Known about the structure:
Layout lengths: L1 E3 L7 H4 L18 H7 L2 H11 L4 E3 L2 E5 L5 H8 L24 E3 L3 E2 L1 H11 L4 E3 L4 E4 L2 E4 L3 E4 L3 E3 L5 H8 L7 E13 L6 E5 L2 E10 L5 E6 L1 H5 L5 H15 L9 E12 L11 E5 L2 E5 L6 H11 L35
Parallel strand pairs: 1-6, 3-12, 10-17
Antiparallel strand pairs: 2-5, 3-4, 7-8, 8-9, 11-14, 11-15, 12-13, 13-14, 16-17
Amino acid sequence: MLLERDSLGQGQTINSQGIIHSGIKYAFSETFTPKDQLALKDTSKLWENIERQIHIGVRTRSCLLWPYAENTINTTIAALAATSLRSPVSRRLIPPHLKQAPAVYQIQEPVITPYEFIHSLYCLHYDNLIHCPFINFLSPTEIELPRTGIIKSQITILAAGRGNQDLRDAMGLPGGIKMQLRPLHMVVARGDLPELYGHCISRKGVETTITTTGDPSGRTIWQIGGRIAEVGANRSKQDQIKEAVKLLFLITHGIDVKKLEFSTYKVNRAEVQTRLLKKPTSFSYIRNDNVITAWPTKLALVPALAETIIKTLPPPQNLGDPVNHEERPAVAQPIWETWTQEWTTTN
């Protein structure tokens, strides 16, 4: 049984760019360690297994990777020596909007549609989903639902992102578990845009990651993340859009930004606290008797985290009937389909 306070996937999942990272991009980061790639290298097999069972909305099977400028080439080549990549894409196969790039590489990183992935899980497990704005914990493994009454479980798993700490407090679990929030200020552009999935790198790391999706009106949308989203976490909406426009001018070719509309959104990445509040190298989970608190760290690691936790669980006992009298949650929508804020042009 899964209890959801808001909409299923609300927060980090629906707002993610949907890239199933291979770990290669971390070779271009100053904080790169072998653990980064090790944690991600086997996730592709898990996702392939999931795709054989449900629809996950694969948009592309691979991403592009290109240097920010000519003077980044040596950095790129050195970093690629630590990866499986060797040769760039032939110049005749480079898309027109990246013709200015000194080199373009192709990496095997699928991109999925988070909404479609969540919706497939929603349909598969509908009878076991409950919308529960307020959870009345009688004990860590005992709750009271509005219509059904008292429900008992063998194991309780907390996977609420930034809400994990509040749930632990409500259960009366021991302290000492610290959580960190690493903010992002994402940029969204819509208009006459080509499909683009990939990472632009500089000497400072992944300058930006761009993925493509669409809206109900058929307009193309770019989600623009990466370093610009991290360093721009405290910028105003207007300043962040200005930085994004500058960046697009430098790293793409033939994109008329004056014909595009822009907006931004902020999201926090909830993780177990690390030294100096740096990015964790993998997922995390903590067990307190019959309660497991889990943080996947990134979408790509969700199946690996689930598989690891499942191996620790006892065989299910005394399975009850589906709870049919409770309200079901809705599936979260992409943020640009629900917000009321205005889009901005650069004219």
